[in-house]
Amino acid sequence: MNRFNTLLLAALLAAPLGALAHGDNDHKNTGPVHKEQKEWGIAGDAKAAKRTIVLTMRDTMRFTPDHIEVRQGEVVKLVIKNGGKMLHEMVIGTKQELDAHAALMLKFPNMEHDEPYMVHVKPGATGEIVWDFNRAGDFDFACLISGHYQAGMVGTIRVVAAQSAAPSSAPSAPAAETATANAAMQEMSDGVVRKVDKENRKITLKHGEIKSLDMPPMTMVFQVSDTALLDKVQAGDSIRFKAIDEGGKLTITVIQPVP
User: Fold this and answer.
1) What is the mean pLDDT of residues 103-110?
2) How far apart are CA 175 and CA 126, in angstroms?
3) Within a domain: residue 109?
4) Structure confidence by residue, pLDDT tens digits, 126-176
5) Whether residue 58 is found in the same domain as residue 87
6) What is the pLDDT of residues 217-247, one digit of tens each?
């Protein structure tokens, strides 16, 4: 018996009955590719692929490389080579999806499937996946043939978020500072100091509407969070202030004198 037959016999004995039939037809897409948005992206057009990544599958139950990194929105052609003597496959997905699929493969080793995010490659052959990584995140790929996944034939994919998406969710530093300042100003209220009581950490104000507390204009006595706030003002001063409700106790935390 030659070496190839020895390895093939070992694979047949190690795998559940019918496991090697899983990819007998290579599951190559001969018709239009069905595009369905997945968590990890969507099937891409070969003409749009600007980058090619080559991966090799081996009978040691490993991918080389076992980690790839792409940019969000990048269409990539994955060229998958089977450098072993056994049938292998590459399936992209989330860890949860791959776990569930692998469990089904153990239960139904003859199960056949054909999706654009997977390819089955016979020994010595090469397969391709063209994928549009249009969603950022960390994803996985694996060989789900019975016994292979369980032996650790897995890899990871990191899809780095596109920089162009940043402005909509993260304004530039000046814009962020302006937004913060505007928000702070909206929380401030107008008032005129009627009395300052440093000993008891209190200030009496004739104030306008305090929107944050849903309070109409009136004259009230407030606590202050820090007596140092009272060093800035005296009776008759116009101020802007921020007041909060601390368990039913109205407390001023910010005082800004108005010139």
Assistant:
1) 80
2) 51
3) yes
4) 999 999 999 999 999 999 998 999 999 999 999 999 874 444 444 444 544
5) yes
6) 888 889 998 889 999 899 999 999 998 888 7
For residue 131, what is the domain's CATH number? 2.60.40.420
Q: What is the percentage of the chain residues whose pLDDT exceeds 90?
A: 57
147 and 181 part of one domain:
no
Query: Domain check: are 54 and 155 in the same one?
Result: yes
**Is 0.70 topped by the overall pTM?**
no
What domain count does the chain have?
2
Segments forming the whole domain that contains residue 231: 173-257
* Domain end point (choices 141, 162, 183): 162
